[in-house]
Amino acid sequence: MGFIHPENSLHQRDNNRTQLFDLNYDQLSNRASSPYDKGNKLDISQSTLSQLESQNDDQMSTMKEKIGALKSLSLRMGEEIRGSNHTMDQLGEVFEGTSTKLKQTFNKMLIMAKTSRISLRTWLFIFFVVFLLFFWVWIR
């Protein structure tokens, strides 16, 4: 069940399909490649060229101002980020110190509870009552 192909059709291409543009494409385009090109009968006066240059200069100065504003904004953002990172580092150190103090206090409380004759549940109840008292005073 093999397909039979003529030998000539395997290696030949249709030239019309592979050609990107028509041969007359270059003759059809009548645009000038630049304002200074005089070959296609385009004549731009010096006043028009100077007006275009002044518009270009105005747009360039506007763009320069916008880029300067973006640069100053990015520098301020960088300073703010560095300041925030420093603050976060300090806050992390404070939390680490607080965590260490709480662990030490809890360990001391456990030692105190073991050495006294009062049970751990009683100590926790006492601390809970004191906490509720402070919380009630704080709310009022």
Automatic annotation (TrEMBL):
Transmembrane segments: 118-139
BP terms from Gene Ontology: protein transport
Superkingdom of the organism of origin: Eukaryota
Entry membrane topology: Single-pass type IV membrane protein
Major subcellular site: membrane
UniProt GO cellular component terms: Golgi membrane
Residue span, T-SNARE coiled-coil homology domain: 50-112
Subcellular location as annotated: Endomembrane system; Golgi apparatus membrane
Keywords: Golgi apparatus, Membrane, Protein transport, Transmembrane, Transmembrane helix, Transport
PANTHER family in the cross-refs: GOLGI SNARE BET1-RELATED
Protein name per UniProt: LAFE_0G10946g1_1
